Amino acid sequence: MLNAAYDAFAERLAQAVPGLWIGAPEPRYLEEPRGRWFGQGGLLVKPADTAQVSAVLRACNEARVGVVPYGGGTGLVSGQIAPDGPLPVILSLEKMAALRKIDSHAMQVEAGATLQQVRDWAEEAGRRFPLGLASQGSAQIGGCLATNAGGVNVLRYGNARALCLGLEVVLADGTIWGGLKALRKDNTGYDLRDLMIGAEGSLGVITAASLRLFEPPAVEGTALFAVPSPKAAVALLELAQRQLAGCVSAFELIAGQGLAFLREVGPEVQMPFAQDPDWCVLIELGLPAGMDAEEAFGALYEAAEELVLDAVVAQSEAQRSALWELRESLPLANRRIGAISSHDISVPVSAIPAFIDAAQGRLTAMGDFRINCFGHVGDGNLHFNVFPAMGRQRDDYVALRDAVKRAVHDLVVQGFDGSVSAEHGVGRLKVEDLERYEAPTKLAMMRAIKDALDPNGVLNPGAVLRPQG
Amino acid sequence: MLNAAYDAFAERLAQAVPGLWIGAPEPRYLEEPRGRWFGQGGLLVKPADTAQVSAVLRACNEARVGVVPYGGGTGLVSGQIAPDGPLPVILSLEKMAALRKIDSHAMQVEAGATLQQVRDWAEEAGRRFPLGLASQGSAQIGGCLATNAGGVNVLRYGNARALCLGLEVVLADGTIWGGLKALRKDNTGYDLRDLMIGAEGSLGVITAASLRLFEPPAVEGTALFAVPSPKAAVALLELAQRQLAGCVSAFELIAGQGLAFLREVGPEVQMPFAQDPDWCVLIELGLPAGMDAEEAFGALYEAAEELVLDAVVAQSEAQRSALWELRESLPLANRRIGAISSHDISVPVSAIPAFIDAAQGRLTAMGDFRINCFGHVGDGNLHFNVFPAMGRQRDDYVALRDAVKRAVHDLVVQGFDGSVSAEHGVGRLKVEDLERYEAPTKLAMMRAIKDALDPNGVLNPGAVLRPQG
């Protein structure tokens, strides 16, 4: 059982870690983007370097006080917010935001740097760090790695995990693991890096990372293709891969419902088609020198025949930005409408059309909803979000909410061998889902590893796994 | 302390696992490719399915008998051979070699299928499984995953780890973890898949895998470029990435010394240049439809200016095969010459030229050697192998062998922050190296995980980590 971080512990911490920033958390450390969870007051610390993180964890571990690591606060599953349990220490990495070094193949950055800053550093060096999220202006790279963030370029470059070469991690007892080697191939023992990535701060606190850098493609282009159905979208993806294997950087599904939401509640964005199509896909290509993006899109359009109804190819950087703005505005419109239940799910790519059909069918039988289903179809990852019917309120559906979530998740797992947590993580929101849907063997292995690396359970208590004792 | 698998245990196993193939191992199960290690007799079992693997492990765990998982036997670090300790059970996966299912995005295969068979299944489905090794005709996919094998296409497609979507694993106590979901994005808890990949059978026995499939590039081409130096090779790689980001499938360094070995001892292969260059790089491109491989190589050649001395572009499938045969014959020539010490190392890609210079300098100061340094320069991974001077024998160097290895490894780790086990794994050959070069924190984490998942230490005892007690 953990102890609460009351005043006496704050004094002890101040003595144990000279120079440490200690204070009470402002409200922003206790809220999360969707406003569904509120954290407890606790104690906020902002270590200035890895040694201070180490000293904080050592003190917390000795005193059996929980530690909630805090990055940019953009997580959607409450991994950064502890609403109950003994008062924890909130450990914000914001003061550790330096670029330690960079060359043409890799960069070493501290965990508190925002994703946008990391991308900018890469760009200044003539390279690219291809992790891209709508929240990249606030999200910190440490949090992106702790949650194995996904985003819009996973199709080409992989999740955060695939972009990370090495980590510096502080363990529960304060020990520092300096695993920052920037190697593409390194088979010296167990893959501790990937164990830490996606563990959401429950096995260690990531303080720095070595990241892969890429050469930006010589030629890039963006287009929006209107398609008759999700089935056509998946077939179009296969066609694009056949013509342009490895050069499709993004392939994002957008539902007509999403466009309707934008028209209804904003934000105001440029609408690409006179009449909103039922479905469209935003495609980004990154091509070799000597190719022409417009010609490549043209060849795809011709070969696609009845898979495509209409297409807009960006002719300028402004047009390209406008298409991306449309895509990136969907989550804000969703929040303004107010979802009954949101689902960050994945299924095998080829099962996407059948899943959408089946899920719509199940929900139609349950009530009157609007469904905005969009996302990273190239990764088999959809944000399948369920909203009130036109003119009705989210509150009208309180009684149905759990049943909606259960129906969607049951279908994902039992019908399509999919995942109920594709790219947003487990946090505290999905601990029960994990217990419901994952094999007991997997949960037992996770528990054994947690107990082995954090025997007192001080690291992000209640996230990913239910707290013990 | 483990018990030996004597006759009484064989009887017990036969009773516990009806129908199990049990016998004495033929010599081929006790040898390894370089002939440096010999295993003990032990007991050989060949389970027919996952349930039998489970029953074998349960019985071994209860009786505290060690289990050495056995794939194709092509490993170079003795992960599949136990030369000492109590007599273990050798568990061969060879009877579990089925294709369970395949669609356009993924395939599910059993661990005992050879890599060549897996590649063939993919090709029959019009797809590609891009893991490629010289030993792929014998190496089994389970072993490739257990060792996180690398090979010639890592630059484009990643190591075995990056090509695996899910695993079925039998744990030490016989529990089966069915983690075969074929998802590109799945953040439901700790990354147990990547923990098992590269653990070399010391945390569980991989019995099946879900693998990623790729669309073969529309256009492919192969060329050999003669370059003046490793520095020019790395600069040429950067140039190729700038022109053709994402489309460089392989970029392999070949030393003039390697060509000289082929001329000296064979095997006889077609030599591409009239006069052997000091260095050359084998480049494979996979391009979008509409591009021409010869033109792409031509543009690269022109832009490269003084980075390239000469070039041969394959004009036919036969010429392409001949270039690859040259590359794939290097290890055999090396074995015929007989290395004093071989080093599977990696350093940051940009440090490759400085490492080669420094390593040659250190060795020149130690004695009279020939060095054949070749490999996957695009991944920062070199096989830096040290041979006797012309006319001398390996036996003349016995006294120097440990010092040579130590000098190379010290330089890799201390001088270049590199790895002494890039793609071949740790096995039993490099357990001491791990203890010497890896941080105590990392070793302690590995030990904690091993103890948590295999508390009796029955899984591949002595591999990766020294046996306890």
TrEMBL record, chains A, B:
The keyword Flavoprotein applies. InterPro entries: FAD-bd_oxidored_4_C, FAD-bd_PCMH, FAD-bd_PCMH-like_sf, FAD-bd_PCMH_sub2, FAD-linked_Oxase-like_C, FAD-oxidored/transferase_4, Oxid_FAD_bind_N, Vanillyl_alc_oxidase_C-sub2. Keywords: FAD, Flavoprotein. Residues 30-216 form the FAD-binding PCMH-type domain. Transmembrane segments: none annotated. Belongs to the FAD-binding oxidoreductase/transferase type 4 family. This is FAD-binding oxidoreductase.
